[in-house]
Amino acid sequence: MPPLFAIGTGLPVVFFGVLIAAGVTAVSRWINNLGKAEKIMRIIMAIVFIGVGIFYLTQI
What whole-number distance in Å separates Cα of residue 16 and Cα of residue 10? Predict the structure, then answer.
């Protein structure tokens, strides 16, 4: 009986451990993609700010 108890109590722990590990991997990939998108957005915003600055300089 004790071996069955050990297996029965260990399986949920292993199951949730695998789920957490898979979730961490997915979140890690998502954060890496977010970092790439942030770099592109910074470049776009820099161009917008420079463009607005040039626009205001020509209005003076």
Answer: 10
Q: Which amino acid is located at 22 in the chain? A: A
Query: Of 59, 58, 60, 56, which Cα lies nearest the Cα of 48?
Result: 56
The number of residues making up the chain comes to: 60
Cβ partners under 8 Å of residue 9, min gap 6? none
pTM of the model: 0.53
Q: Tens of pLDDT along 12-55?
A: 888 888 888 888 888 888 888 888 899 999 999 999 999 999 99
How far is the C-alpha of 38 from the C-alpha of 36, rounded, in Å?
A: 5
